[in-house]
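Input/output pair, single chain:
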Amino acid sequence: MNPLLLRWTTWHHRLKASGVLVKMYEDGSIYDSKLDSVKTSSDGTFRVSGSRNKIRTIDPKVNIYHKCNYNGLCSKKVSINIPKSSVVSGSSNNARNYDIGTMNLANSKQTVTVIGKLTCNGQPAKDVRIKLFEDGTIYDTKMDSIKTIADGTFRVSGSQRKIRKIDPKINIYHRCNHSGLCPKRVTIHVPKNAIGKGSKDAQLFDIGVLNLANRYPGEGTDCIH
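Output:
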């Protein structure tokens, strides 16, 4: 038997979110198996626990269903995967408390700004398309799109409202030393410490001067962008 206990506090704006439905599942390859279901108490806290008789270590997660800042017909769902190191075997008396802290369900605004200069063979690279994305598991979300000006410089910025930290990147589409049908694409990931959250201003992430005549890791061509 693999028992697991979980504790958490949820917040809605600056008020504790009570009555929020929380379900614990074992994450299955075909379907999920529900282990527990509770609602948060008046102070926003909850405790879910569950166990399964399995040879392999279970892969637990919690789903949180809420309507914070949302008036749609269906609830929003937030899924949190629980590390397998928190799962123990044997009696439920041996189960560990896994405390995943406090979460603001209001989805605070996160912002990012990227600047830099592009060159091609030592000359400013003008009119190069640059797009800022949030790098998603299934698809990317575009936050901004610009072209470099005459001196090769650019500035892109964007924001997203998410519970988890966003994962921004820029894609650069160019034809420096390239005559193929589709432009080359260079991707640069933005470090998470350059992301501003809430009222905090985003730090400028400066990629410096990038010579597009060079080859870069992961560089390829992109016909649809």
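The CA atoms of residues 15 and 44 lie 9 Å apart. Residues 4-104 form a domain with the Immunoglobulin-like fold (CATH 2.60.40.3330).
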